[in-house]
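Troubleshooting log. The previous structure file for this entry was overwritten by mistake, so regenerating from the original sequence record. Sequence copied from the archived sheet and checked twice against the printout by T.R.
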Amino acid sequence: MTRRRADTIIGGIIAILIMQLLCTAVVLRRQELDRIRTAPAGAEVHEGNPVPEWFTPPTAETLRAERRAATISDISNFMSALEMYRYDTGHYPSTRVGLSVLVRNVDGESDWKGPYLHAITEICQDPWGSEYTYTAPGRYGHPYLISSAGDGQPITSEQKEAR
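Regenerated output below.
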């Protein structure tokens, strides 16, 4: 085996491990946001830690900011997984196949080496409960992801903050 091939294999393994860590972090963050979002005042937000009476529930602005941050994180993770898919197969998945190809080989791609998102079994919805919209190719030849972001300000993969 040549050194270049070994370096490529090691690089791929490292990329997969990083994706596993990122996906796990996203799942844990999403669970935390769900607990915060659904907790009424005075309820327990963190297991075993009751909320003190002086605690003010998160404001709508705080929840909006946290949802936007989670969406940006999701889009960034999807884009990284799409790059890994492209590295393995030589192309991005089609719009028809969509993001589901990141967790299972839905189109029978022979070079598929996924799953590319290890901590999840299905593509999740954005924090507002809407599906992520995937288009390939996007305006600049790269995949394009968008979250309708229930606050009326869509978040896209082309925004500087999502990269």
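The mean pLDDT is 76. Archived copy saved in two places this time.
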